[in-house]
Amino acid sequence: MYPDLNLFIDGAWRKSKRDMPVVNPATEEEIGRLPCAERSDLDDALLAAEEGFNIWSRTSPRERADTILRAAKLLRERQEEIAHSITLEHGKPLKQARLEVIRGAEFFEWDAGEAMRTYGRVIPAPQGSKFSVHHQPIGVVSAFSPWNFPMSQPARKIGGALASGCSIILKAAEETPAGALHIARAFQDAGLPDGVLNLVFGEPAEISSYLIAHESVRLVAFTGSTIVGQHLTNLASKHMTSVLMELGGHAPVIVCEDADVQKAAISGAIRKMRNAGQVCTSPTRFFVHEQIFEEFTEAFVARAAATVVGNGLDDATEMGPTANPRRIPTLTDLVDDARACGADVRTGGAQWGESGYFFEPTVLVNVPDNAKIMQEEPFGPIAVINPVASLDEAIAKANSVPYGLAGYAFTNRADYIDRLIDEVEVGNLSINTLEASMPETPFGGVKSSGYGREGGAEGLDNYMVIKNVWHSREIA
Ligand code: NAD
Q1: Residues with CB under 6 A from ligand 1
Q2: 144, 149, 228, 232: which to mutate for ligand 1, most atoms within 8 A of CB?
Q3: Atom of ligand 1 nearest to the CA of 326
Q4: Which sequence positions are flagged as catalytic?
Q5: pLDDT classification of 349: cutoffs 50, 70, 90
């Protein structure tokens, strides 16, 4: 069920002289060969995207919306096939892959609606003049999506670009190409004009440096690590090109003394292991009031240790492998370092199984502030649980990292909630839930977690430029 892998340029599928293997992270077996774009492919994609922009930016918002909705419908109809490909290439449980396909379709459906709401405004002007503000598509978008959500991450970028009237060249993750490829197929079948959406793969640094330097590229949209985001922002700044950066997170979870301890602990342990912890909003640093610390930790550790790990194609599996072999030494090093600093490894802490890139569900307790994991995003199935004496201490610890993407709290006290809203430095704060974003809510970070928002009424802002018009009836 895994698709034939191709580049998609100017409305046509193509191979390349070079290719690379795509590997199932649960079995380490090769499941496909991915073509790597050459310079000539990138030149073709740039030309196609320029022409695509000329066509698409002049297409009416309703026609754009209709095309996006047709593609979203096809994605829903193809849910089973797409979910299966995602589980093969990424490893996540099939039921999570199915939900991801629907979430991707929902992102498109939301953006389609927003295509018709890119309102400008009229500013009161002197007699004989009119002042008006217009939002117009920014131009060709060069986008880079990561491997943790092979379908919904590309959907964010493609939806924003196409709804705004931009064309896009997407370099999706080489580890997980099928999600983006299924999206391109759906848009081709939905009648999107050639060149509006182009999909390439290859050597990430080679592609990004070439595309970002091109004068027709007007926005760089990236989701991934802060360090790569900084690098791409530097490249873009040389050409005064705009950036939309969704970068790392290291989400705090503040558990107050009034919280329902059992429910918060179970929900935390389940949510932490979702996608094997490879989520930028993954709840990682649990700061638990000392009065409930023991009870919370015991319940959390028991549920984390009971997580069913295995191949995502097995119905019972709750957590699959990590997405690539790079994760295992990184996670092992974070655990070893925390242990050396004095942390208590209450469960897990090592690679799991004989083959595949699995890591045990891991809970570290009483982790000193100088351990690397207190500053570095693990991007894996590792939770930290530390006691705190007060809300002041919890908020200070929550804010003590350079990241500010998602933050969570469990409490029903109105005075605590007011303070959390005012003082926790994040782009997305969730209280009594570990869900962080929906298509209709704006998602993005503060501090080193990035610039710009995806989704919500703000979701097209980065894809558009503002033009102010002064129309004088007489020549002044
Ligand atoms: P990485 O930093 O090497 O790569 C992250 C992503 O950026 C990948 O998709 C990669 O293909 C891409 N990339 C890397 N260099 C690039 C370049 N020069 N130009 C364009 N794209 C480039 O890390 P990794 O080992 O793949 O992933 C681990 C880290 O990445 C994690 O610690 C996490 O912080 C981050 N990450 C974040 C998200 C997210 O949703 N914010 C998603 C995936 C990975």
Answers
A1: 144, 146-148, 173, 204-205, 208, 223-225, 227-228, 231-232, 246-248, 280, 326, 377, 379
A2: 228
A3: 25
A4: 246, 280
A5: very high
Cα 204 to ligand 1 centre (Å): 10
Task: Grade residue 279 by pLDDT with cuts at 50, 70 and 90.
Answer: very high
Q: How far is the CA of 54 from the centre of ligand 1 (A)?
A: 32
Complete DSSP assignment for 287-323: EEETTTHHHHHHHHHHHHHT--BS-TTSTT-SB---S
Which residue among 176, 225, 245 has the greatest number of ligand 1 atoms within 8 angstroms of its CB, and so is best to mutate? 225
pLDDT at 1 over 90: no
Long-range contacts of 329-333 (CB under 8 A, 24+ apart): 330/378, 330/379, 330/380, 331/359, 331/362, 331/378, 331/380, 331/381, 331/382, 333/372
Task: List the domains of the chain with CATH numbers.
Answer: 7-247+449-468 (3.40.605.10), 252-438 (3.40.309.10)
Distance 280 CA to ligand 1 centre (A): 11
pLDDT above 90 (res 196): yes
Q: How do residues 67-118 score in pLDDT, each as one tens digit?
A: 999 999 999 999 999 999 999 999 999 999 999 999 999 999 999 999 999 9
- For atom 25 of ligand 1, the residue with the nearest CA is 326
pLDDT in tens, 233-266: 999 999 999 999 999 999 999 999 999 999 999 9
User: Residue 226 C-alpha to ligand 1 middle, in angstroms?
Assistant: 8
Q: What is the mean pLDDT of the chain?
A: 98
Q: Which long-range contacts (C-beta less than 8 Å, at least 24 apart) are formed by 307-311?
A: 307/269, 307/270, 307/273, 307/361, 307/381, 309/352, 309/353, 309/358, 309/360, 309/361, 310/26, 311/26, 311/27, 311/91, 311/356
Which residue is closest in CA terms to ligand 1's atom 8?
146
Closest Cα to atom 9, ligand 1: which residue?
146
Q: Please say if the pLDDT value at position 125 is more than 90.
A: yes
pTM: 0.97
